[in-house]
Design brief:
- The protein has helices at about 40-55, 60-75, 80-90, 95-115, 155-165, 180-190, 205-215, 225-240, 260-275, 290-305, 325-340, 395-400, 415-425, 465, and strands at about 5-10, 10-15, 15-25, 25-35, 120-125, 130-140, 140-145, 170, 200, 220-225, 245, 250-255, 285-290, 345-350, 350, 360, 365-370, 385-390, 410, 430-435, 455, 470-475.
- With about 475 residues, the chain is an alpha/beta fold.
- It is globular, with a radius of gyration of 23 Å.
- Bound molecules: nicotinamide-adenine-dinucleotide (NAD).
- Nicotinamide-adenine-dinucleotide binds near residues 379 and 452.
- Nicotinamide-adenine-dinucleotide (NAD) binds near residues 148 and 206.
């Protein structure tokens, strides 16, 4: 059987097994069979990256710019084709798939520029006749572990800065979305990188991921995924003295105050709660609404949800694609059921059939919930949001912060005073005013606080904090 192979030491290498890539909109549609590596092949990729680092660490900013800019340009030129493939394997709609692909391209182009802008400091010493330089250097071999929900953007925002700052990469995509990863690897394989600088190793978290976490040859590990996996990885990498960064789950609040513009608030809630099938770490899943606007807000939201088309991701007119797989659908349905049993009033949320066999679910809005309910404590990661009614802005802020997570938080208000206070006091890495909590720029830091994140921020100029190490050099004149 033909398989899409791994890319190790500059060669396309068969796996020890293959895995079919199933379209969640139509489970009879297989995108292809993708190589599955074992821990031994992951070790080979790590060794190749280590060997390549000897020379790549001395690559010029111009070399790195040329590679990253070329990759960004090719992704941009092929955005419709790559975006369609992404939608076919992950289930987000075509416009969402193309949008994510463009974002990935822009990330490569941004970090092409960053490769040219690595600066340092020349500092007078406190001692006479001594000069001090402070500068950044690459770390060495970085392991990159990605989740399935942004099959090209998240790999891009890890791979591009890793290469821009002179590191070598071993990249492990999520099992469910190897096609976007393979396409990106294929583009990188023709970009002028020396063999071994970039390696793609598709396979199970317990095999390939585990090898990256455990290997002392992996100097730094960047992970995005679930809280349970992330916390284990942080502890394991730190225990062997490696550098580690983890972006994990969210239970993001969107506060709607009495003085909010109703259309703005409903739009923010529907966009960030349900688009991309709610499978975004920045999705608004707790909508905290003050009493004076609560009824109007809920009624208008439900009107909007009734009009959304749930369907095949590639069909024109689909607003919400399928859930990514059977396991995630079962998890979503279980949480809706728990919410109902704990006293929530559920609108929607049923699994439904469409013209092709897939994992379709209607968006669920659960009203009458309280902060202590399971639905307001645990991440669902589907088209499911709950509404918490509160008396005033003080209670809204307290409820918004009453969570172990801290990725994104939003507020809809026309009061500058309330917006300013929320930006200051929301315990989250990213705060949005009169905007959906999901949907961020590609050139500024991304990440959270509390249980959502560990380590330095990703993206923007701040990515240098993770992908470089700082050296201080002293010279006697
Ligand atoms: P996951 O934790 O199941 O898997 C993430 C990656 O880790 C996959 O590549 C997987 O193969 C790998 N993995 C699994 N077990 C491993 C192990 N023992 N050792 C090493 N690697 C292992 O997460 P998922 O289901 O793919 O993604 C959904 C989750 O990701 C959600 O919780 C979501 O909130 C989170 N997410 C967070 C962000 C963010 O930036 N905060 C962004 C997107 C997704």
């Amino acid at each position: 059987m033909d398989q899409y192979r791994n890319f190790i030491a500059g060669e396309w290498v068969e796996g020890v097994a293959t895995r079919p890539n199933v379209n969640p909109s139509d489970t009879t549609d297989i995108l292809g069979h993708y190589a599955q590596a074992d821990a031994g092949q992951a070790e080979q990729a790590i060794a190749a990256a280590r060997a390549a680092f000897k020379t790549w660490r001395r690559s010029t900013p111009q070399q790195r710019f040329d590679v990253l800019d070329a990759v960004g340009n090719e992704i941009l030129a092929r955005k419709d084709e790559i975006g369609r493939q992404l939608s076919r394997e992950e289930g987000k709609t075509m416009p969402e798939g193309i949008g994510e692909t463009v974002r990935a391209a822009m990330i490569f182009k941004f970090f092409a520029g960053e490769a040219l802008r690595v600066g340092g400091e020349l500092v007078p010493s406190v001692r006479p006749g001594v000069g001090v330089e402070v500068f950044r250097q690459p770390l060495g071999v970085v392991g990159l572990i990605a989740p399935w929900n942004f099959p090209i953007a998240i790999p891009a925002w890890k791979i591009a800065p890793a290469l821009a700052f002179g590191n070598c990469v071993v990249f492990k995509p999520a099992e469910l979305v190897p096609a976007s990863a393979w396409t990106l690897a294929e583009i990188l394989s023709r970009s002028g990188l020396p063999a071994g600088v970039f390696n793609l190793v598709m396979g199970a978290g317990s095999q390939v991921g585990h090898a990256l976490v455990q290997s002392r040859e992996v100097d730094a590990l960047s992970f995005t995924g679930s809280v349970a996996t992330g916390r284990r990885i942080v502890a394991d990498v730190a225990a062997r003295g490696g550098k580690v960064q983890a972006e994990m789950g969210g239970k993001n609040p969107l506060v709607v105050l009495d003085d909010a513009d109703l259309d703005v608030a409903v739009n923010a809630a529907v966009q960030s709660g349900f688009f991309s099938t709610g499978q975004r770490c920045t999705a608004s899943s707790r909508i905290i609404v003050t009493a004076g606007i609560h009824e109007r807000f809920v009624d208008t939201c439900i009107d909007r949800l009734r009009k959304l088309n749930v369907g095949h991701a590639l069909d024109a007119g689909t607003d919400i694609g399928p859930v990514v797989d059977a396991q995630q659908l079962a998890q979503n349905l279980r949480y809706v059921d728990i919410a109902r049993r704990e006293g929530g009033v559920v609108f929607g949320g049923e699994a439904v059939e469409r013209r092709t066999p897939g994992f379709y679910q209607l968006p669920a809005l659960i009203t009458g919930t309280t902060p202590a309910m399971t639905i307001n404590r645990e991440e669902v990661f589907g088209p499911v949001a709950s509404v918490i009614r509160v008396q005033d802005a003080d209670e809204a802020l307290a409820v918004a912060n009453d969570t172990e997570f801290g990725l994104a938080a939003g507020i809809c208000t026309t009061s500058l005073k309330q917006a300013t206070r929320f930006k200051q006091e929301a315990e989250a890495g990213m705060v949005m005013v009169n905007l959906p909590t999901a949907g961020v720029d590609y050139h500024v830091p991304f990440g959270g606080r509390k249980g959502s994140s560990y380590g330095p921020r990703e993206q923007g100029r701040y990515a240098a904090e993770f992908y470089t190490t700082v050296k201080t050099a002293y010279t006697a004149a």
